[in-house]
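This section describes the prediction task in plain terms. A model, or a person checking by hand, is given the sequence of a single protein chain and must write out its three-dimensional structure as a string of tokens. No templates, partner chains or ligands are provided. The sample shown here is typical of the held-out split.
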Amino acid sequence: MSWAQFIDLLGNNVTYASIFKTDGKILASTNGFTLTEDEFTQILNIYDKGSAFLSASMKFHGNEYSILKADSENLQMRFHSYGLMMSRCKKCFIFAYHNDRIQPQNCYEAVVRVADILRSYGY
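The expected answer:
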């Protein structure tokens, strides 16, 4: 599968999404979506905190998102009815944003499902 096909598997459960390597290089993205260097650094810092990351937050598009649900690989964050979902694989990350018209659980499940597929391929 191509990287773009993994983004396609997320379907209409995300507003924007990106898959990027641990060095920040984007492998695939929804049309026109990218993360800033600061946003990427925030993601790495959250995962680097270990169990302390439960108190972490992330600034995205000018809003402060707080962690709603987390484990060692997956993070679900929210700001009002908007959300961020991240999943860390061995060699890449999936980052997804959903607006207020998408159910947060649908975004979460879609990202986890695609991350599990990537992990099964060794990524």
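For orientation: The two ends are 12 Å apart (CA to CA).
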